[in-house]
Amino acid sequence: MAVSVPGYSPSFKKPPEVLRLRRKKARSLGAALEPAPRRAALAAGLPLRPFPAAAAGGPGGGRAPRNPFARLDNRPRAAPEPPDGPGRFLDSHQENDLPREETFPERTAVPAPPQTPHVSFSESDTPSSESTELPVDWSIKTRLLFTSSQPFTWADHLKAQEEAQGLVQHCRATVLTLPPSIQDPKLSTELRCAFQQSLVYWVHPSFSWLPLFPRIGADRKMAGKTSPWSHDETLQHNLMSDWSVSFTSLYNLLKTKLCPYFYVCTYQFTVLFRAAGLAGNNVITALMSPTTRGIREAMKNEGIEFSLPLLKENDHKEKKASGTSLEHGEEQAISDEDEEESFSWLEEMGVQDKIKKPDMLSIKLRREKHEVQMDHRPESVVLVKGMNTLTLLNFLINCKSLIATSGAQAGLPPTLLSPVAFRGATMQMLKARSVNVKTQALSGYKDQFSLEITGPVMPHSLHSVMTLLTSSQSGSFSAGLFTHEPTAVFNISPPVDEVLNKETVHEELASCGLHPKTLDQLSQIPSLGKSSLRHVEMNDYYYSWRP
Description:
By secondary structure, this protein is of the alpha+beta class.
């Protein structure tokens, strides 16, 4: 007896209708038999392998169907799977990768997608220290990027009166002390004027169309720029004459302690001149880096006494260069007389011709190879102290290799950077702009505020800006500091002849144009070595940093 099936037509008069009903019935039957985990996986959009042929028969098959979700990829198992159970298969850190409604009620082996861990400042590297003050950093920064949960809109669109007041405060070295926290920074005229004051610097020469810092490796940025002096010897002579006057003016200000420090930036090296009392030294000091054997030999020929602070000797003493600094020890140890005595016994045996005697030429070649190997490296930094800095001044003014003879910088004098005015200098401003962005957080989106400062940021400007942000951001902000790498070595700690009295330093440098707190920081003995500050974070008015 035939079984009557609804919708079944034994006469096959309407085949399309029959096929439609069969497809509908198959879909409804399959949905009823679909396991809950598979439906959840499909809803989540995860790729699934098809059912095996043995399980296609459904409950009528000869054996129980294999769990189709036991393995969704072809990679070998790292460890045996735990038995199926009602618990969720995601652990605590994986569960955050999927919303809760998408977690499966049955434990399977679906691998979580690899996640790149977010490493915060405190997790990646342990900060060097934590203090209410930062260590002194004598490197030149090219860019500062500050971030904070509070806006920096107070730093934008200064009024004409605020801008003028800030410039006057800089020229008169006005000392301002802000409160630890400012309730509404945008309405604080005192804060905005002080910010303008901290962005001022002085430079020579200055051409609006030509970037004059940095100079090392700047040929590509200067390429294509107009340089009428490159093939005009008369113009080159005039530029160099003006530069010499400005350089001498700066040194005289430094010697009389009316200028705390300044930089000479050439296309090959940078020189940092510091007044007596800064960096723990009681005399004027000059650091030059990087140097070459040629420039060091030329300095020795001019009678400039210098030392190589990072050149370690067996006895851990610095060698002083006064014409024989690098060769005195070796030449004294092996003199012509000593050589004759040491090889006299070979002559008695008649074998002196078979032994190759080291000559002074081979010794000199070995020494020169050692010197050349440290060229252009931080270890080649040169320290000049006292009256030798005046000799260095004259040497640099008359040094022909100070100016490039070809390329984009041909005929262009070095750049002089100073925190105070000097003869022939041009006042310039660091560029500052604030940006407000939305960043994604666990609870949605939150405001993230940033302040970017670009230009040759010298140590006094870095300290001044940090002090202002302490007040404006209520003692909480982060900073990324981008260093002009050839100047990072200026943070080495040169030998100090005597411990200076803090009060004496403040009294002698009271008219150098720096804020007392900035002067106090710059008078510290450097402690960063060949590195520099790169990441700074302030929380609850305490600094933490790492190089």
